[in-house]
Amino acid sequence: KVLAADATGVRVSTDSGLTLLAVPAAEQSPATGDEVDVFVRPEAIALSRDEAGLGGLDNRMEGEVVSLLFNGANSRVLVRERDSGGEVDIALPQAGEMHELKPGAHVHFGWRADQALCFPASGGDEA
Fold first, then answer.
1. How many structural domains is the chain composed of?
2. Which whole-number Å values give the CA distances from 103 to 18, 46, 98, in the listed order?
């Protein structure tokens, strides 16, 4: 649900209680109270072992690695968000501190508001 919307973006509250910053996917911004769905591409999500590694990202969370899928440049990690219990699909970085990542590991993840698009709600399930 939209908590606030202005020229800089949209502040959304999810059914699970998370607050996210996003941008409207259409030219017309949603109004306060509108139901929306927020989408973020897996490759737009930064992954770090600590919060400092996320820098100034607008949306920051933490969770536990559920599983990893190794498929070359398309490798993914599934993370269960700490507060909501929702699972987030994140593109696995190909180098750096994540090369020894394992299920059960605690990680931080996040993305910029302009990488999160909100659309009018479709009526489907939310994380």
1. 1
2. 23, 18, 12
Tell me if residue 98 falls in helix, strand or coil.
coil
Tokens of 18: 């998370």
**What is the value of pTM for the model shown?**
0.85
Measured on CA atoms in the order 89, 80, 118, 51, is the torsion positive or negative? negative
Residue 41 lies inside a defined structural domain of this protein: yes
Please check the confidence at residue 126 and state whether its pLDDT lies above 70: no
Query: Strand, helix or coil at 91?
Result: strand
Is there a domain that residue 30 lies in? yes
**pLDDT band for position 17 (50/70/90)?**
confident
Cβ density class 47-76: b for 16+ within 10 Å, e for less: bbeeeebbeebbbebbbebeeeeeeeeeeb
Indicate the SS3 state at residue 90: strand
The answer to whether residue 126 sits within a structural domain is no
In this predicted model, what pLDDT tens digit does every residue of 74-92 receive, in sequence order? Answer: 889 999 999 899 999 999 8
78: in domain: yes
